[in-house]
Automatic annotation (TrEMBL):
Family as reported in the entry's similarity comment: Belongs to the iron/manganese superoxide dismutase family.
Record SUPFAM superfamilies: Fe,Mn superoxide dismutase (SOD), C-terminal domain, Fe,Mn superoxide dismutase (SOD), N-terminal domain
Manganese/iron superoxide dismutase C-terminal domain boundaries: 101-201
Gene3D superfamilies the record matches: Fe,Mn superoxide dismutase (SOD) domain, Iron/manganese superoxide dismutase, C-terminal domain
UniProt catalytic activity: 2 superoxide + 2 H(+) = H2O2 + O2
Protein name: Superoxide dismutase
Function (record text): Destroys radicals which are normally produced within the cells and which are toxic to biological systems.
EC number: 1.15.1.1
Length: 214
């Protein structure tokens, strides 16, 4: 039985034009994201079989596949909701007047200013080697925000940090439209950031009990 299911997009395929064209959104969601959901479910079945048979010869590969596909599913599920059309409020900066003042303050405290944060996340995303993500995450030990440069979906990740804003820097996210100009795609992404969604995720991460303490 499938544990994970592909979530519906919160908008239609053309909603993020001209930043991301409908063909990319359709392929990205219906094919790539769907493959991570299937991969996570298939791997869980294979692990159940290994437990039932007490056969552990493939355990290293199975655990790696689980991390890859599950992280791919989670990051894409966040990614779709992190974006919205500029006409529906996407883009700009988080502002207290829009009810996201705590997030704006946390960004300033953690990075010095919104401009410095934007520069770091843009750089981290645009310079991923191979496939990866730029991620703004809540780090529960310090209670601050950090930018992480994630490889594939699961490498180079700080244990315990909770992603609140993710930029997909895999070629499948932009190549049909931006060709090899990854930095142009990442810079355009700022026009469709849904700060209301980022703020909700930040508040939820902050409210959760940190599982790591000293
Ligand atoms: Fe992707």
């Amino acid at each position: 039985m499938a544990i994970y299911t592909l979530p519906e997009l919160p908008y239609d395929y053309a909603a993020l034009e001209p930043v991301i064209n409908p063909q990319i959104i359709e392929l990205h969601h219906d094919k790539h994201h769907a493959a991570y959901v299937k991969g996570a479910n298939d791997t869980l079945e294979q692990l159940e079989e290994a437990r039932d048979k007490d056969q552990w010869g493939a355990i290293n590969g199975l655990e790696k596949n689980l991390a890859f596909h599950l992280s791919g599913h989670i990051l894409h599920s966040i990614y779709w909701n992190n974006m919205d059309s500029p006409k529906d409020g996407g883009g700009g900066e988080p502002l207290a007047a829009d009810g996201v003042g705590e997030l704006a303050d946390a960004i300033t405290e953690s990075f010095g200013s919104f401009a410095k944060f934007k520069a770091q996340l843009t750089k981290a995303s645009a310079t991923t080697q191979g496939s990866g993500w730029g991620v703004l995450a809540y780090e529960p030990v310090s209670g601050r925000l950090v930018v992480e440069q994630v490889y594939d979906h699961q490498g180079n990740v700080g244990v315990g940090s909770v992603p609140v804003l993710v930029f997909d820097a895999w070629e499948h996210a932009f190549y049909l439209q931006y060709k090899n100009q990854k930095v142009d795609f990442i810079e355009a992404m700022w026009q469709v950031v849904n700060w209301q969604d980022v703020s909700r995720r930040y508040q939820a991460a902050k409210a959760s009990v940190p599982l790591i303490s000293f």
